[in-house]
Amino acid sequence: MKLLLVEDDPAMQATLQRALERRGMQVVTCGDGARALERWRAGLPDVVVLDLSLPGLDGLQVLEQARAQALKAPVIILTARGAVGDRILGLNTGADDYLAKPFDLDELEARIRALARRPSGTAPGLLAAGAPEFCGMRSDPDSGAVYFNGTPMELAPREAALLRALLAKPGHAVAKERLFELVFPGEPDVHYEAIEVVVYRLRKKLSDTGVELVTLRGLGYLLKAHA
Questions:
Q1: Phi, psi torsion values for 213, nearest 5 degrees
Q2: Selecting from 3.40.50.2300, 3.30.420.40, 3.40.50.620, 3.90.1720.10, what CATH number does the domain 2-117 have?
C-alpha cells in the first residue's frame, strides 16, 4: 500500500513513518501543504493521511484543491483541533475520515486499511446513491460516516458503528450480542457490558435528531422516530 503522510511536526512525522512502514506500508512524507499537492499528483497514493495545521496551504486547502484536480485517493484527517466544526468542514470538503490527536496507532492503521479497501466509484464526502434513510439520517456505506439532514454527525468510531448497525434495520430490534460483535470486532478482552456505555453516549447524541434509541430488555436495541 502506498501512503502519503502530510504532517509538519518532524517528530510526529518520523514516528508515524517508522510505525506504518513496520506494518508493511510504503510511506512518502511531506511537511508542507503546497508540496503535498505535488507529491500527491506525482505519487498517486492509495491513501492520504493529512494534518490540518500545515505551512503554506493548510490541510483543508490542500484537500479542496486536490478534489478540484480530481485527485480521488481517500483521505483521513489528523487534527488536534477539538471543534466539531473543523471536523465536519473536513468531511464536507472531501475527507473520508478523521482522527483526533492523540490517537492509537492500531486504530490509525485499521482506518487506513479500511479506506484502502473502499470500493472505487463513490465521490469522497458524498453519500452513495440509494443509501437507505431514516428520519433524515443516512449512512454512507463507503466512508462509514453517518449524515443527518446532509451534515456529517460528530460520532466516535464505536458510536458510528453502533448507529450504522441500527440504521440497517430501523424499527427492528438488533440483539445486544450482534451489536457487540459489530462495535468491538476482534476485541475479546473488552467486557460485554461495554456496549451499554456506547449506547448511552449515542443516545445523548441523538437527543436532538427526532430519532430515539430504545432498549428492549431481552431483545436488544432499536431506532424509532419520536412520537
A1: -95, 115
A2: 3.40.50.2300
143-173 residue pLDDT tens: 678 888 878 888 888 888 899 889 888 888 8
In the three-class reduction of DSSP (H, G, I as helix; E, B as strand; rest coil), residue 141 is classed as coil
pTM, 2 dp = 0.55
For 175, the grid coordinates are 440483539
Q: DSSP states of 66-92 as a string?
A: HHHTT----EEEEE----HHHHHHHHH
The three grid cell numbers given for residue 204, joined into one nine-digit string: 445523548
Contact 20, 103 (CB under 8 A): no
Task: Give yes or no for a contact between 40 and 52, defined as CB atoms under 8 angstroms apart.
Answer: no
